[in-house]
């Protein structure tokens, strides 16, 4: 038996990783149970390929507080001692998994690539040495496991099956010293590269010897996607981006990004190492032989000065957006 903590967007919508997590759970046992802590999900939208779904509803201001999730989960899980518990790795999920492992005295294994059941243990696979090698290990059947979302395979978001749903009435009280103050959406200039769902990277191809500022159109694209801007090693050396926003093995690795837009980046091995976990890559480069195209899901062979304005216009038109203020890549329907 395996229990999946289903990740939600703002407590009301199942994230794509939730469906993939259920598929992974089938490798660990014959029976899969979904556990959802929400603040107003539409039950008609819950179509998970599992045996049953257990739901706990929290007030909207309590849902972002991890300690309340831990207590709610612990109350539900106390008498269920013979099943693995799976999470899709994220800052909030990792905090809940760690707290639950402590409360239930269970083994915790973080950022797993894959796990399968073998006799009386679980065989796990993890990245080590910055992704340059893999570690194979064993853990108990009742372990708490967080999956690296980069390795969760894409699956059909919905199934025709509707598992029976059970509403649990559990009074969960978290740490009295922690309370929700406000929710604020960060602008593209405030979001960290490692936290963003969409990231823009620039390279030598954006540099201008004549001193003309070519970054204005990049900033416009960043506004449309609400995406922070980083760059290659060369972009750092040319002062196009600050050193802390260098992407690659000598800088930042993008482990959480769903989309990476590489503009004027040739694609050195050290840069590709920093984007190996990105799910989808769009590359814009004037050189059709640039190595970045081998890693890209979509490539545009063009001068970025022509391609970027057209991309901005396409996104605005597709999303029905008349201006570029405060628009995320999700709202842009990419």
Q: How would you describe what is shown here?
A:
This is Electron transfer flavoprotein subunit alpha. The protein is built from 8 helices and 16 strands. The protein is of the alpha/beta class and 334 residues long. It folds into 2 domains: 2-167, HUPs (Rossmann fold, 3-Layer(aba) Sandwich), CATH 3.40.50.620; 198-319, Rossmann fold (3-Layer(aba) Sandwich). The strands form 3 sheets. A 9-stranded mixed beta sheet has the order 9-8-7-10-6-1-4-5-11, sandwiched between helices. Strands 13-12-14-15-16 form a 5-stranded parallel beta sheet.
Describe the structure in brief:
It holds the Pfam family ETF. By secondary structure, the chain is α/β, with parallel strands linked by helices.
Notable features of this structure?
alpha/beta, 25% strand, five-stranded parallel β-sheet, 2 domains, 23% helix, Rossmann fold, ETF_a/FixB, Electron transfer flavoprotein subunit alpha, 334 residues, nine-stranded mixed β-sheet, DHS-like_NAD/FAD-binding_dom, single chain, 16 strands, ETF_a/b_N
Q: Helical element count?
A: 8
Strand and helix order:
EEEHEEHEHEEEEEEHEHEHEHEH
Q: Report, as a whole number of angstroms, the end-to-end distance.
A: 36 Å
Q: CATH topology of the largest domain, which one?
A: Rossmann fold
Tell me the Rg in angstroms: 22 Å
Specify the structural class.
Answer: alpha/beta
In terms of quaternary structure, the protein is: single chain
Percentage of residues in DSSP E strands = 15-25%
Q: Identify the CATH homologous superfamily of the largest domain.
A: HUPs
Domain Electron transfer flavoprotein alpha subunit C-terminal: 193-276
Organism: Siminovitchia fordii
Family: Belongs to the ETF alpha-subunit/FixB family.
Protein name: Electron transfer flavoprotein subunit alpha
């Amino acid at each position: 038996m395996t229990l999946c903590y289903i990740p939600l967007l703002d407590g009301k919508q199942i994230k794509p990783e939730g469906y993939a997590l259920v598929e992974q759970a089938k490798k660990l046992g014959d029976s899969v149970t979904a556990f959802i802590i929400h603040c107003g999900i539409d039950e008609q939208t819950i179509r998970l390929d599992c045996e049953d779904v257990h739901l706990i509803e929290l007030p909207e201001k309590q849902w972002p507080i991890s300690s309340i999730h831990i207590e709610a989960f612990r109350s539900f899980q106390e008498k269920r001692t013979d099943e693995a518990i799976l999470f899709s790795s994220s800052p909030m999920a990792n905090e809940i998994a760690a707290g639950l492992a402590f409360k239930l005295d269970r083994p915790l294994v973080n950022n797993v690539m894959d796990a399968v059941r073998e006799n009386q243990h679980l065989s796990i696979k993890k990245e080590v040495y910055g992704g340059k090698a893999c570690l194979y290990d064993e853990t108990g059947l009742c372990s708490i496991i967080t999956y690296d979302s980069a390795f969760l395979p894409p699956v059909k978001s919905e199934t025709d099956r509707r598992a029976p749903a059970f509403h649990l009435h559990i009074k969960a009280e978290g740490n009295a010293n922690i309370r929700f103050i406000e929710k604020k959406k960060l602008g593209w200039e405030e979001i960290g590269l490692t936290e963003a769902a969409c990231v823009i990277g620039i390279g030598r191809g954006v540099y201008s010897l004549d001193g003309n500022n070519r970054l204005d159109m990049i900033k416009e694209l960043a506004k449309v996607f609400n995406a922070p801007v980083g760059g290659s090693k060369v972009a750092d050396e040319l002062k196009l981006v600050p050193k802390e926003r260098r992407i690659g093995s000598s800088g930042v690795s993008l482990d959480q990004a769903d989309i990476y837009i590489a503009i004027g980046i040739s694609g050195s091995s050290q840069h590709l190492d920093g984007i190996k976990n990105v799910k989808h890559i769009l590359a814009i480069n004037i050189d059709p032989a640039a190595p970045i195209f081998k890693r890209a899901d979509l490539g545009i062979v063009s001068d970025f000065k022509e391609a970027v304005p057209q991309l901005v216009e396409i996104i605005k038109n597709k999303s029905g957006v008349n201006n570029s203020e405060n628009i995320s890549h999700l709202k842009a329907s990419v």
